Amino acid sequence: MCTLEKRGSVYILTLTGNDEHRLNPPLIDSIRAALRRIRSETTTSSSALITTAHGKFFCNGYDLGWAQSDPLRHPQLMSSKLRSLVGDLISLPMPTIAAVSGHASAAGLILALSHDYVLMRKDRGFLYMSEMDIGFKVPAWFVALMRCKVGSPEAVRDVVLRAEKLGAEAAAKKGIVDLACGGAAETVEEAVRLGEELVGRRWNGAVYGRNRETLLAEVVGAMGFDETVENADGTPKAVSRL
Amino acid sequence: MCTLEKRGNIYILTLTGTDDHRLNPPLLDSLQSALRRLRSEAAGCGGPCALITTAHGNYFSNGYDLDWAGSNEDRLLLMSTKLRSLVKDLISLPMPTIAAVSGHASAGGFILALCHDYVLMRKDRGYLYMSELDVGLVLPAWFATLLRCKIGSPAVWRDVVMMAEKMTAEVAVQKGVINSAHGSAAETVRAAVALGEQLVGRKWEGHVYGENRKVVFAGVLDALGVGDSVEHVNATSRLLKAKNVVSRF
């Protein structure tokens, strides 16, 4: 599901296989396990994390098929696990870079945006909030993350309310992506270069993670609850197209 | 006060008359009732649609009817309550909304334009203008929330609110306040219709669209609930009493 390698001071977490890397519990658990390994390995030395993927997709969002197999329980479980994963990324004691190697849509776009830096290949692949097109409600915490990461209300409107499919260059112009790079391999190389530059600043990882949490406090707050999958009292609610 | 027409799948709401379309209770009521009609027709028609709001004459809207209010607190509160209710309706409207700004839009009128998903404006005449500072009025907190939800740059908020800048359409596009600028009022409406048709062509479900817009603008909806404080209305009416305010625009 995912592999973790180390290149110098930089960790590279790769979503493996040529599938859509849909965020179901097995994949989310495997990513979280990799992050736990990173935390246990890094003690005093500085590191950075790059997340990337094999194949045409970076991540195509929630595993809706799996969700529908138990519409009352599975959506809440998936949402809760994704929020834990995003929480892990937000508190990770090192800089994080998404090397977006293919399509990133809906929860997959959120996964990319949960990183400090987003680099993306420009030769193929789209960023896309698909919810509007498939008749789903966008969770408020998704929008909170987007607003924290994307400065332009126009860009947020175009992504969420217009469901635009953005290539890397368009996304960079809208301030959603930091850098548009040549192809998948080049994107990872650029990410490694950036990672090493950041490691060279010799920041205290714990401080880095805490400062990121402070900066994204609104997102951390919003993640406590996903109104599309649960009621105010925490009981699950069935998710379907509106 | 306003008309509602349908062109294919596009509804066009027009503020009629060549006055400055001040947001007084009769106009606000007439706009809300048009939106109610729109919702019930849209529910019946079965397909996706879009709304364009525009106006006749030199003004899109010049904001609250301060002359009518005079220094009467109840009148100020009534206009505020009705405008907030209208804005809530626009934010929950189950279809894309486009403002075709056909003339000056100031204060509450500027806010009304910004409540739409897309703002297009004529570039040959007309300004966007938060006039409050020039007129000596305190900006309602929910106006500020809406401005901040729609305008990304702190430097631009400062220019709009703290400098009371009068922006032409072209400047507004540059500053990221509106989407696009067009040759004339008629051209702006034509461009709005073209955009409306593009959006309708995406075949979104109206209900989904409205719900997702509410999520994106949840901050504004919260601020609307709170509305203008009694203190604020009192302060405003004292200022109006003291200044015998007449439109400066």
Account of the 3D structure:
Chain B: Keywords: Lipid metabolism. The complex is a heterodimer of chains A (242) and B (249). With 242 residues, chain A is an alpha/beta fold. Chain A is built from eleven helices and nine strands. In chain A, helix 1 runs parallel beside helix 3. The longest helix of chain A has 18 residues, at 74-91. Chain A starts with a strand and ends in a 20-residue tail after the last helix. The mean pLDDT of chain A is 95. Chain B is an alpha/beta fold and 249 residues long. In chain B, the strands form two sheets. Chain B has a six-stranded mixed beta sheet, sandwiched between helices. In chain B, strands 4-6-8-9 form a four-stranded mixed beta sheet. In chain B, strand 2 (10-15), helix 1 (25-45) and strand 3 form a beta-alpha-beta unit. The radius of gyration of chain B is 17 Å and the shape is globular. The two termini of chain B are 21 Å apart. The model of chain B has no long low-confidence stretch (mean pLDDT 92). Chains A and B meet through helix 5 and helix 7 of A and helix 10 of B.
